[in-house]
Predict the 3D structure of the following.
Amino acid sequence: MEPQRSPLLEVRGNIELKKPLIKAPSRLPLPGTRFKRGPDQMEDALEPEKKRTRGLDTVTKIATSQSRAPAITARTQTQNQITAPKVPKKTGPRCSTAIAMVLKNQKSGPAVPAQKPGAAPPMVGGRKPTKRPAWDLKGQLCDLNAELKCCRERTQTLAQENQQLQDQLREAQQQAKARGAECRTLEGELARVQAQAEQGQQELGSLRARVLELEEQQCTQEGLLRELQKEQLGLQEERRGLAARLEEQERRLQASEAALSGSQAEVASLRQEATGQAALLVEQGERLHGLEMERRRLHNQLQELKGNIRVFCRVRPVLPGEPTPPPSFLLFPSGPGGPADPPTRLSVSRCDERRGTLSGAPAPATRHDFSFDRVFPPGSRQDEVFEEIAMLVQSALDGYPVCIFAYGQTGSGKTFTMEGGPGRDPQVEGLIPRALRHLFSVAQELGGQGWTYSFVASYVEIYNETVRDLLATGPRKGQGGECEIRRAGPGSEELTVTNARYVPVSCEKEVEALLHLAHQNRAVARTSQNERSSRSHSVFQLQISGEHTGRGLQCGASLNLVDLAGSERLDPSLALGPGERDRLRETQAINSSLSTLGLVIMALSNKESHIPYRNSKLTYLLQNSLGGSAKMLMFVNISPLEENVSESLNSLRFASKVNQCVIGTAQANRK
Ligand code: ADP
Ligand code: MG
């Protein structure tokens, strides 16, 4: 395919391809033709002129040979005519002028010196001139006429040629004009094309910029493409992995489905089995409940056989710094089963200086033997002691009121037994925290059989026949705001302490916090009234409510853990000062309440119609937990010191009296 040419080139080509406008070759050069030719062509164009001139020259030479001066002149003018092509347009007229001059010179022949007669006549028409003698004027005239005729012919020819040339010139001028117009058109076109080219250049520049931009974009896209390809590879890899996993999962699913159908059959048979098991479970539950009720009944019976009032004696160890008593002072004889049997007897020997012999020798020591349900010699651990009362405490969950007292002189170990030793050593934890932990644990077990238990704790002290809340907080803390014992409601047997806090508890930590608070309240009170804690009764009460919603059963009882006031008596021989009068009143109040407790127990034992509960705040508060189906346990705490023997004997005697009491339906098993 031929490449497209720009319009400019096309125009040029047209110009180059245009044929010379000279229609026919002429013997004379055409100025228009010369104008169109290049410098090299000029010579060629000039050539015919020269030839023509030469031709003239030849003519002139003929004339010269006739020694005519005008011929020489004519030759000079012809030479001038040769240089004329430098101004081509003027060549035409000049040429005609030269011809005219030749003719003129030829006409002015007579002015030229006459040729001698006999001189060779001038050559005319190429014929060899014949020499005419000078005298042959006629001949000469004839020659001249011939020559003139020839010249006239020639002039005519030249005029015709001139006419032709002028025609050609006009034609050439018209053509030049047309060319000029065409040239202007082409120039306009060229300008337009140049403008277009310029615009094209601009467009090209912007296109180049665009190309660069696109190349950049392409680079980015290529980078992106490479990344995407890489990612695609990764994804393909991942897809392959996933496909493999899927295959694996499908395999597993199939296996699982197979297993599932097997399992479903198994489940169906298991369901059937479960239905049977449920029926069995209901049956077992019924049986268990029956067994539980039987256990409670037997447990109660066992407790009653052990005695609804039991007395344990506990002798505290000798404390560092205290005098060691003689080895025979306190003895713990073994029971009928030998040393393997837990001790139940205690023997105290007392030397009475007042009962001296007449000879002055000291009277022999008197032995006092006591027998209790259990005797704990010094060194008995807290857990050992609790083990003995755990079953009794559990009775409270079965709905039997339980009362545990700690009786004894100040410093004999009552508080240690009930609350525990100093510090947070779990080894020395007392009965209260241990009993509660045990109750919470058993209640949880019974929860499995459908029982739900709730516990509410209160802690009060009775000092000088006034009741004070040991769990008081805020402004009442340590102040011992007055509390009263009242019936919970009209016609209700239940008693409550007004202004005292009743705190629901469900875990050991809560009980710990309450004991800590009670301890703090006692410490505050101790600053105002010396040793008040040992001069008051502390009563920790836990009200237990149990419910078996499935069977519509309910049970309720209270567990009372009482740290009694010191049982020591005032020495009547001591003189009574103003301070001691208060102390006497205080002691009398304590003794009165302790003896009321004894009297109540006696009255219960003797099944008297009137039980003097109201004679003291302590018995009044505890009246629902004393007697009837209630279970009572008294710890008689004894000091191991010989110097406390008198108070120890008093305590032991009081405890023995209590121990002889029988309350309830069953007979206590006493040895
Ligand atoms: P009470 O309450 O009867 O006045 P405490 O319980 O305060 O007597 O005991 C008096 C002191 O004897 C306390 O320091 C106590 O730690 C200590 N004590 C009492 N019983 C024991 C025991 N079984 N083992 C170790 N120390 C005891
Ligand atoms: Mg105490």
Remarks:
- The mean pLDDT is 78.
- The radius of gyration is 80 Å.
- Residues 316-317, 319, 408, 410-416, 421, 534, 637 surround adenosine-5'-diphosphate (ligand 1) (CB under 6 Å).
